[in-house]
Amino acid sequence: xxxxxxxxICFLAHYIQNSIRENLRxxxxxxxxxxIAIFLCFGYMTGxxxxxxxxxxxxxxxxxxxxxxxxxxxGFIIYTAIFHLLEIDFWIYLIFTxxxxxxxxxxxLNKYSEKRYYFLIMTFFVTLYGLYFWIDNPLRNLIAFxxxxxxxxxxLEKNKWKYFSIIFIAITFHYSxxxxxxxxxxxxxxxxxxxxxxxxxIFSLIFLDIKILFSIINTAFSWFPIITNKIVFYSQNxxxxxxxxxxxxxxxxxxxxxxxxxxxxxxxxxxxxxxIFNSSILYIFLFxxxxxxxxxxxxxxxxxxxxxxxxxxILYNLENKSKIIYQLYLLLIITMITWSSITKxxxxxxxxxxxxxxxxxxxxxxxxxxxxxxxxSYPRIYQ
Length: 383
Description:
single chain, mainly alpha, EpsG-like, EpsG family protein, transmembrane helix, transmembrane
């Protein structure tokens, strides 16, 4: 199965990279990373969101800007309209955008994480988030996630206006980015561990009631009609999944939450450790928020890569024997989550790549639309 092969290559690459000669490590790292990028970014009939984006690509043009802006963010319209104006095929546009965002994630991981743990971080990140980011592909979200990563140097420089300027650009691709504005001060602060625990307990109890969540956000953003309208729309579509008290993912992240707090001193001694710790704790808070209503889970995803770094950095606080046990635990989690993700429905299996159709006649939109549903043994998405 392609997905398990991908995860196995990522995981084994960690041990291979650290055992080969130093002069070969960069070449090895670049080669494996390129293979990962090709697998993730060239998916063809897999995923879900491409259907809407391919259909809308035909009418996102500059002359329709004022009417389209009611449905799409302005930055995304301008970005997409440029490709449309240049008469670039939708799939070239989509794959280019995926590769561009992947390169930003790669840059960030290369710059802000320890080299020896690169592939362990990549394994965890690809499993929990990468399949969703680039194969299921929430495109506007993904672009906004990538732009947010570009704002991290501004936080480290304590340059809030540079940070706000970059976040403003992210907002033009996905309005959820507006919630990143007040987070500048949280990411820059040092909050005591006891305070974090107390707030987490209170936070978890308060947001068991989804109505409280909507009330707070509605009050905070009542000045922004587009956000308010989206809140009203989402609040009318609450289902039985809202207001969850517990889930498998929640249990896993709570375990990491405890271990991260215990490992805090060690993590904060590592370069950029303070920011990485704050971001990872913030991710867990936002994940809990997402349990109350799933749409808010996407806000947590802004911190997914940094959270992945922190989960691996826990190794710094462990003795050699404990490191082996922890890595086996990570491997178990990765295996279970991969299976859960790819068998949930038909979006991931069967895997297909655009590369295999380069020199062939392309299937019709209708054929591709139902391809995974018609050829998967897992639950259909489109009836």
